[in-house]
Input
Amino acid sequence: MTDVICPAEPPAVAVGDRLPELTIEGTPTFIVASALATRDFQDVHHDRDLAHAKGSKDIFVNILTDTGLVQRYVTDWAGQRARITSIKLRLGVPWYAYDSLTLTGEVTGIDDDGLVTLKIVGTDSMGAHVTSTATLYMNGDPQ
Output
């Protein structure tokens, strides 16, 4: 996982700006710990044998972890004053243990009141794992 320092002041933004990439390693420990931390006790997130028995290649990351990672990605870029108003996710291919996820993002809109819209994609070795639209106020509140 890449260390990122969350800026104290929000960056200036324009439509078309790209967020810096963030790569996260999907170790078995990360997948199990994040599933349990989000109180998701489905066996496919922590038991390799049962995941195999259900036709899965390996254990895989749960959606609550994806949501948290997208939120972290946005706030790492936007800074401490950002206030996320919405995150919408669509899942694609699974993110299995021993694979990595690379998050990329782009500013796709800025409303008159300062509401910023981002498109975020998380890609692993199989393709797009998560596609997300997030909205936020860079400085906490509408302008």
Q: What stands out?
A: The mean pLDDT is 94. The chain is about 20% helix and 35% strand. Residues 63-78 form the longest helix (16 residues). The first strand starts at residue 18 and ends at 26.
